[in-house]
Write a structure and sequence with these properties.
There is one protein chain. By secondary structure, the protein is α/β, with parallel strands linked by helices. The chain has one domain: Peptidoglycan recognition protein-like (Lysozyme-like, 3-Layer(aba) Sandwich), CATH 3.40.80.10. A hairpin with a 5-residue loop joins strand 4 and strand 5. It starts with 11 loop residues before the first strand and ends in an 18-residue tail after the last helix. The model has no long low-confidence stretch (mean pLDDT 97). It binds zinc ion (ZN). The site of zinc ion (ZN) has 4 residues, from loops.
Length: 176
């Protein structure tokens, strides 16, 4: 269930400062699925949680130089056990899609919800992640009727040539 402030009641709440208001009258109609691991291929969620809260120590790993100072977020994160974390209210605009377009409409952050799965382009996702994702999508679709089946996409579909996630191991048949 989503409460009236826009938080999923069974998610662990971690408030990210990386959000702002959606444009007035923008209907939420798109779900964007991502993968993330920090550093790449490390499937512990802690660094991602810190990254979304601007608390990641960029000195703690060489790779983090590449993402130093970036301010990003996602509405939801699902770890390898299927646990769900939420960083931004669904009514606010999280910063997950970047330069993007869907059906000729640009800036997908304006009208989308972002869901990150801990994982990579090189590894299958866990069954528990699909179970949680499916349940989350059902709740979101019930809350926002503008999200039709064909409006659940991968980051690579709205930022082609720039992004590859959720990657070749993401099994769309498990959620469609
Ligand atoms: Zn992504």
């Amino acid at each position: 269930m989503i409460n009236k402030e826009g938080w999923l009641t069974n998610a662990e709440k971690h408030i990210s400062p990386n959000f702002d208001q959606r444009p007035k009258n923008s209907e939420i109609k798109l779900i964007v699925i991502h993968n993330i691991s920090l550093p790449p291929e490390n499937f512990e969620p802690d660094n991602v949680k810190k990254f979304f809260k601007n608390e990641l120590d960029f000195e703690s790993h060489e790779f983090f130089q590449e993402i130093r100072g970036l301010k990003v977020s996602s509405h939801f994160l699902i770890d390898r056990s299927g646990k769900i974390y939420q960083f931004v209210s669904v009514y606010d605009r999280a910063w997950h899609a970047g330069i993007s377009s869907f059906n000729d409409q640009e800036n997908c952050n304006d009208f989308s919800l972002g869901i990150e799965l801990i994982g990579s382009d090189n590894t299958p996702f866990e069954d528990n992640q699909y179970v949680s994702l499916e349940g989350l999508i059902e709740i979101l679709c019930n809350s926002f009727p503008g999200i039709r089946k064909e409006n659940i996409v991968g980051h690579s579909e709205i930022a082609a040539g720039r992004k590859t996630d959720p990657g070749p191991f993401f099994d769309w048949s498990k959620i469609r």
